[in-house]
Specification:
Oligomer: single chain
Shape: globular
Number of helices: 2
Strand order of the largest sheet: 8-7-6-5-4-3-2-1-14-13-12-11-10-9
Distance between the termini: 34 Å
Length: 189
Amino acid sequence: MLLVVLFAMTSAAQEQLTKFDVFHNGNMVGIAQLYQKRSGDGLYMKMTTDIKVRMMMEISVKIIEESRFVQGKLIHSQLNRTVNGKEKANRQTNAIVNGYQTIAEGKQGTISQPRIDYNLIQMYQTEPVNRSRVYSDNFQTFLTITQLPGHVYRINLPDGNYNEFTYSKGVCTRVSINSSMYTIQLKRV
C-alpha cells in the first residue's frame, strides 16, 4: 500500500496545472490553463485559452497550444486558433534532421536551427533568466526577449504588437498582451 501512495505522489509531482484569469478593460472575459507533464527526459505542455469579449460585437477566441520536448529539444509544437468558430491559425513545428519543418495553414517551410530549447509557452511558467530569445510557435521564428525593470520581460512581435511577462520569485504571475486594437491581461490564479 505504501508503494502505491508513493507512486501516486511521484506521478502528481510530475504534473502541474497553472490557471490564469483573462481580463479586458478590467472585466474578466475568459480563462487560460497551462498543463505541464514531465516524464523521464520528456516535457509536454498544453495551453488552452478561452476568451469571450464584446468590442463592437461579441468575439469568441479559442487557442490550443501544445509542445513536446525530449532532452530539452523541441520535437513538435502545434498551435490552433479559432475566432467565432472559424479557424484563423493552424501551425506546426516539427524536428527533422538538421533543423525543423514548419507548417502554417498548409504551407511548408524550414528553419535551419539544429535545436529549439525554449519557446513562448514556457514563458507562461518560468522566468527567462539569462535568455535573449524565444521561439514563437505562432510566428514560427525566434523573437528577442528584452528585460525591463522589476522582473518584467517584453517580446516585440513581428506584427507590431508586444507582450509583457511579469514574474515573482521566478514564476509568471501576469501577462499583458498589447495590440493596437486592445490590451488583454492574464493574471495567475
